[in-house]
Each structure stands twice: as structure tokens, then as C-alpha cells.
Amino acid sequence: MIEDPPILTIRRRFDRPSAQAVGALTGVPTGQIVDALGGRAAMDYRIKPVLDPTTVPCAFAGVAVTCHAGPADNLALWGALDLARPGDVIVAATDGFTGTAVTGDLMLGMARNRGVVALVTDGLARDLDGMTAVGIPVFCRGISPDSPARNGPGIVGQPITLGGVTVDSGDVIAGDRDGVVVIPRARIDVVIATLAEVRAAETAMEQAVRDGLEMPDFAKTVLASDRVKTIE
């Protein structure tokens, strides 16, 4: 038999990337970040911006402040809000629960007042009109008017799994209309350096397509090789 856990367990100290590093990743398309990370870094495809991007621009990058709230509860988000600094992103795991929302316009407004630049969750949000008025991006699995409790237990500031990706406080998290990607803090410098190569290759290929390219050389090589079996 286990003992009842504390209602919140909070790690208040974690290493943060420099403002220059976050700035270097701001405005970079998520697809380019994923390519710089080797092809896999995105959260589950269902975690998408829920606010109209013509009203609330959805692109963001910031330092992750993590929490695990569990289903039908949002006490841990208040703990994350207490840790948040300007430029941070609150990242809230709910085990993918869709029975209630985990946040709404009032919490989001307070987050904006603290300088939070986005909120990401694998759960639901509520108060669509109010969140639009608040004006910072919300990435989640959908909208529901149902409300959560504030009972815990929850964890704050520790590694979580959200949308199939591990996120720790101090990682950089970025999003746009394509979805959300996580750049582990230990790999930030390598990703920034690799982005120059990714951009150069993509720019060259885009120009080739504009010039009429119909098939890239790598595909031609494979299709002409003995690794392809042709049947009539």
C-alpha cells in the first residue's frame, strides 16, 4: 500500500538556455527544426493551435516549464505558472484526458501577464472567445466547456511525456501551424549550428523546383537501381 502523495511536487531550479539561443530558434519553421534534430521531434499531430491564426499568430518559441496535472485536474498548472518567467511556455501533460478542459481564458490571461508566450497541453482548453481576446497561442487537442478540479496530485518542473515526446523544464519548445517540436537543452547548440545546413539545402531545393525540377537525383538513383523490382 502506497502513501498518499503530496498534492504538488515542484522542482524549482533547472538550467535554462540563454536568451540568444532561444532567439536563434524563434521564427524557425518547425519542419526545419525537426530536420536539424534528425527527423523526429514533433508531438502528436493532434496537438495543434486552436485559436484562429489570422487573429492570434500561432508561431512561438520559448523555454519549457513542465507540469503533469493528470486527468480532470489543473492544480499543477498553477504551480507551473508560479515558476514561469517572461518568455516561457507552460507545457502541461494530462495523460491525454479529454473529459474536461485543463485551462481557460482566465488562467491564460494570468499567464500572459507573467510574460508566458504560449501554452501547450495534450488535453483540452475552454473559453475560446476569451482565449482569443487574451492573444497568446494555445496548442491542445480540442475545446470543451467542462471544468477540471484543483485537487492534485501533480508534479511541476520535472520531465514529462506529452504527445509521445519527453519534455523537461529548460528545453526549448517551438510551435507553428504544423505542430509543436521539442529541442532538448543539451542539443540546442548543435541544432542551431545544423540549421544553417538545413536552410541552405531547402533553399537550393526550392529554387530547383521553381526552375522545373520533376525528380531529385536521390530518387532517380534509387528508381534506376537493382533494389527496385519491376513487374508487368
Describe the model:
This protein has 232 residues and is an alpha/beta fold. It has one domain (8-186): Glucose Oxidase, domain 1, CATH 3.50.30.40. It has helices at residues 19-25, 30-36, 75-83, 105-113, 128-134, 188-210, 217-223, and strands at residues 8-10, 48-49, 60-68, 88-93, 101-103, 118-121, 124-125, 138-140, 154-156, 160-162, 165-167, 172-176, 179-183. The protein starts with 7 loop residues before the first strand and ends in a 9-residue tail after the last helix. 40% of the residues are buried. The model has no long low-confidence stretch (mean pLDDT 95).
Task: Figure out the total of helices.
Answer: 7
Q: Which CATH class applies here?
A: Alpha Beta
Give the terminus-to-terminus CA distance.
Answer: 66 Å
The major pleated sheet works out as: 9 strands, mixed
Order of helices and strands: EHHEEHEEHEEHEEEEEEHH
Count of β-strands: 13
In percent, how helical is the residue content? 25-40%
pLDDT below 50 for ≥5 consecutive residues: which ranges?
none
**Proportion of β residues?**
15-25%
What would you say about this model in short?
The chain is an alpha/beta fold and 232 residues long.
